[in-house]
Design a protein that fits this description.
Shape: globular
Number of domains: 3
Helix content: 25-40%
Distance between the termini: 71 Å
Protein name: Dipeptidase
Strand order of the largest sheet: 16-14-1-2-19-20-21
Organism: Muribaculum caecicola
Number of strands: 23
Strand content: 15-25%
Length: 547
């Protein structure tokens, strides 16, 4: 997602690469997961996006009833379209049938942006969730919507999944030359994992395969525009419609590579592609060494390229506390040479994220579980939101604070309270954050398994009530516990010191009840060495013999 792109800024989004485009979506098919569910993830990254959870109720609509469409990023009114007789309830990026959709923006050829379109990428997701039950239905709905009403966004990749299968669809407009969009959708083979992160990932594709669907003119339109010449069999969607440059590879494909590298061997073979577009493009999917769990997918979303050539904790940019974050802008220039900061999956400007766990052999109310978190994926707590939930927990509710209004009842602000302290002294604070985060998520996973077993014996209404109450209880509890964690971090690390503890969370006092003398944590050895190299002669302690 890119909450900075509006109609007048589409060209800028293309040219600025890593600076403007910002979302990550990972995919695991049923045959690649420990419980046989399909899973897709999403990090909604934007410097102006407030982390909250959206919800719409199911509804019946009279003939002629219209739905107004507003651009999801800017709020600009785009037009209106007819409502179907019935629309499904949604919560976040999932609906009551256990269908989930996520995305990432890649911009593509700027001349293909259609300012006359009515359906932007965000509206395309949420309107489709109201109208489709399965992934294949969703693809049909999405492509028909843009065909009928025009596509008002730049290039996008979509993850689309239900309990049976997962698909990647990539789409870009036609620049107003004709209504609609060109697109390709590919089913991720069972047993594989995949992903996309702000760069088009579909290259060549089979032309006669029921697991690959594409717009009838996806190749002919590229020919007309002069983007492609050659036989249809070698047509490359990404090469024709996207822009492959350094930022698209190092800032985008590298995130998917890191996910692959975490779960599959031999991924170093694709480093030449990531670094300089050498050799064949990185594959659209790979087979993991072992099945992935929900927790594996959650931790994949917390990746900072640890233990890879792009590890963000290992260079001078990490500072004295091994901070795996870099403030924007993404590139900088020294002595006329341009450099880049790494762009990892986990980033400070995330509004919300999720791991959607989509299942088939469970009651309707449990077919979809949106493990939902706000702010930075690295320091959030993922809470299960079931597809039957129709009332959003107060801590996630729209209107409870915003990007310019702090609310201590809002999970977004509470998690920022914790994360923004850690950004200053990461290596010292992250052990305490992990202690609380892991304890909460372990407890959440255990209690959720127990509740799911319990509700199997209940009727539909009772099942929904119990699951909704469970979601609310966990969301509010984790928010309260993280507020306590933020307070604890402030006290423990006040003024650059580290308070002593008798046990985690219990500060040491003297026999008279005063604060025990704190520890002086100082800086990392690599930082001291850098300081000594830079200013050693001035700072060196000298032996003085005064007579």
């Amino acid at each position: 997602m890119n909450h900075t792109i509006i109609a007048t800024a589409a060209a800028v989004a293309v040219s600025t690469g890593m600076q403007a485009l910002a979302c990550t979506s990972l995919i695991a098919t049923p045959g690649a997961t420990t419980d046989g569910s399909a899973m897709i993830t999403y990090a909604a990254d934007s410097h102006t996006l407030y982390g909250e959870l959206y919800s719409t109720p199911a509804a019946n609509h009279a003939p002629g009833e219209m739905r107004k469409v507003y651009d999801w990023d800017s709020g600009r009114y785009l037009g209106e379209i007819p409502q179907p007789p019935h629309t499904y309830s949604t919560v976040g990026n999932m609906n009551e049938h256990g269908l989930a959709i996520s995305e990432s923006t890649w911009g593509g050829r700027e001349e293909l942006y259609d300012s006359t379109g009515v359906i932007d990428y965000g509206s395309l997701i949420y309107i489709t969730l109201e109208r489709a039950k399965t992934a294949r239905e969703a693809i049909a709905v999405m492509t028909q919507l843009v065909k009928d009403y025009g596509y008002a966004s730049s290039g996008e990749s979509f993850s689309i999944a239900d309990g049976n299968e997962a698909w990647i669809m990539e789409m870009i407009g036609k620049g107003g030359k004709s209504k609609g969009a060109v697109w390709v959708a590919r089913r991720v083979p069972d047993g594989m994992i995949s992903g996309h992160a702000n760069h088009s990932r579909i290259h060549t594709f089979p032309l006669n395969d029921p697991e690959t669907i594409y717009a009838p003119d996806v190749i002919s339109f590229a020919r007309e525009q002069g983007y492609f010449s050659g036989p249809d069999s070698i047509f490359d969607f990404s090469k024709a419609y996207a822009v492959t440059d350094f930022s698209a590879l190092r800032g985008c494909d590298a995130r998917v590579w890191s996910f692959f590298n975490r779960h599959s061997k031999g991924m170093d073979v694709w480093l030449p592609w990531i670094n300089e577009a050498a050799g064949k493009p990185m594959p659209l999917w790979v087979r993991p060494e072992k099945p992935l769990s929900v927790r594996d997918m959650q931790w994949a979303m917390r990746d900072h390229f640890e233990n890879t050539p792009f590890d963000m904790t290992c260079d001078a940019g990490a500072g004295p506390f091994e901070v795996p974050y870099r403030w924007r802008p993404m590139t900088f220039t020294v002595d006329s040479v341009e450099y880049t900061n790494e762009r990892a999956i986990a980033t400070q400007q995330t509004g919300f994220s999720f791991v959607a766990q989509l299942r088939k052999d469970v009651p309707q109310e449990m077919k979809g579980v949106l493990w939902f978190g706000v702010d930075d994926t690295n320091t959030c707590v993922y809470v299960p939101v079931f597809c039957c939930v129709t009332e959003v927990p107060h801590c996630y509710a729209p209107g409870n604070g915003d990007m310019l209004t702090l609310s201590w009842d809002a999970a977004f602000w509470v998690h920022n309270y914790v994360a923004n302290q850690a950004y200053n002294r990461y290596s010292q604070m992250i052990p305490d954050i992990r202690r609380v985060q892991n304890a909460l998520e372990d407890s959440i996973a255990s209690s959720t398994q127990a509740v799911e077993r319990q509700v199997l014996a209940l009727d539909k209404k009772a099942r929904k009530d119990v699951l909704q109450a469970h979601t609310h209880r966990l969301a509010e509890h984790s928010t309260r516990e993280f507020k306590k964690l933020g307070d604890y971090l402030l006290v423990k690390f006040l003024d650059g010191n580290i308070k002593r503890e008798t046990e985690p969370g219990k500060f040491a006092r003297t026999a008279q009840g005063h604060c025990a003398s704190p520890q002086f944590g100082g800086y990392s050895d690599s930082y001291y060495r850098a300081v000594a190299k830079d200013a050693g002669e001035r700072l060196r302690v000298k032996e003085i013999n005064f007579k």
